[in-house]
Amino acid sequence: MNRVILIGRLGADPELKSIPSGESLLKFSLATSESYKDKDGQRKEKTEWHRVNVWGKRGEALAGFLRKGERVAVEGSIRSSSYEKNGEKRTSVEIHATDIELLGDKGSAPRQEPAQAPRSGWVKPQPYAAQPDDSGSNFDDIPF
Question: For residues 110 and 131, what is the distance between their CA atoms, to the nearest angstrom?
Fold first, then answer.
């Protein structure tokens, strides 16, 4: 199974592009951080950067809400590709996002609505919170 869940902050405002086929692509960088103690007992923090892609109408709608510094949860799959640049083989790893939720911060001011309303059919994302559902699944059931 190829599934990833990341919680972090946008490193820059997202970029919405239209590819030659006419489909929309929203791209942004996401920083995730973890803290730990080194062998000397000093607290350290490590930040990883991830490239995230959101395709189609979902990306178009999110472009009006996402901004640099925004805290989000991203769920999707890892995609890698290889290419050659200046005779050197390189590999690119990106997250193909299928679900994004705005998390916000405790005590933060309400966000301003985007200048242009999202396309019809879009429901404004709500802050991420584990909600009980009828299926009986629960985050506590995950074995890791």
Answer: 22
